[in-house]
Amino acid sequence: MDPNLQHVLKRLRVMVSDYAYQKQERNFDLFGINVCTVEYDHQTMLFSIFERQNNGTFIFDDIDLAAIEIYNQLVDFQLVF
Question: Measured between alpha carbons, how far is 8 from 66 in angstroms, rounded to an integer?
């Protein structure tokens, strides 16, 4: 597995295990630019991914699919540079 994908998955797992707030939010940046913001809602157990480049929103109930989407967004953004 790609180390970058493993890093994304690790950050998502931390969000799921952190119960300090009902909704956890993390930014995924590349070159100092926000590529996407991820929100995890403990009540619904859903990941919402807000893509900055195309202003899209994706919702996942599976941590692996959410990680793949974030990873793909980071790779696509990197290809622009």
Answer: 9
Give the Cα separation of 65 and 5 in Å (integer). Answer: 11
Tens of pLDDT along 27-56?
A: 999 999 999 999 999 999 999 999 988 889
The answer to whether 19 touches 73, Cβ cutoff 8 Å, is no
- pLDDT band at 81, cuts 50/70/90? confident
CATH of segment(s) 3-80:
3.30.720.20
- Domain spans of the chain? 3-80
Give me the pLDDT at residue 8, please.
Answer: 98
The residues, ordered by sequence, that sit 6+ positions from 68 with a Cβ below 8 Å of its Cβ are 5
